[in-house]
Structures are given as structure tokens and as C-alpha cells.
Design brief:
With 85 residues, this protein is an alpha+beta fold. 26% of the residues lie in helices and 36% in strands. Strands 1, 2, 3 and 4 form a four-stranded mixed β-sheet that branches. Strand 2 and strand 3 form a beta hairpin. It is globular, with a radius of gyration of 15 Å.
């Protein structure tokens, strides 16, 4: 059975969705997890760097590492092996 939570998209599909968001003038947040080759010594997991942007009124603003950390930890415990970029 196919996992309904996993959807493969091409870069073209992603860009089309971004373009639609911009045209509609809505608000959205985008976060990207970059998996590194570094291993966290405490958890033994690959270290991830999380970047974020806010899209509002046809403008994009990159979130600071502090803002990203605050956003990521609102509803959950801090994730292991993470840095914010």
C-alpha cells in the first residue's frame, strides 16, 4: 500500500506552487532541513540544519536562526541533532 503522506514532486511542481502562493497574496511558511554528514555525539544522529522563510503579501523574508528555533519548538520538545540556519 502506498504511503499517503509521501508525495514526490519535481522542482517544477514546487516552483509552480510557490508562484501560486505569491499570486494569491496569502501567507505561508517554508522550512528546509539540510542533512549534513556530521554526527551528533549525544544522539548519534546526523546533524540537520533548519532554515526558514515567511511568505506574506508577495514578499519573502528569511527567518533568523533564533526565530526558526522558536517556531520549531512551539508545540514539541526540542529536536535532537539540530542547528538553525
Amino acid at each position: 500500500m502506498k504511503n499517503r503522506w509521501i508525495q514526490t514532486m519535481t522542482m517544477s511542481d514546487v516552483l509552480k506552487r510557490f508562484q501560486k502562493m505569491f499570486q494569491e497574496g496569502g501567507m505561508a511558511g517554508v522550512s528546509i532541513r539540510q542533512f549534513t554528514n556530521e554526527i551528533d555525539p549525544k544522539s548519534n544522529l546526523p546533524i540537520k540544519i533548519i532554515y526558514g522563510w515567511m511568505i506574506k503579501n508577495q514578499r519573502v523574508r528569511r527567518l533568523s536562526p533564533d526565530e526558526m528555533q522558536e517556531c520549531e519548538n512551539l508545540d514539541q520538545s526540542p529536536e535532537e541533532a539540530v542547528r538553525f540556519g
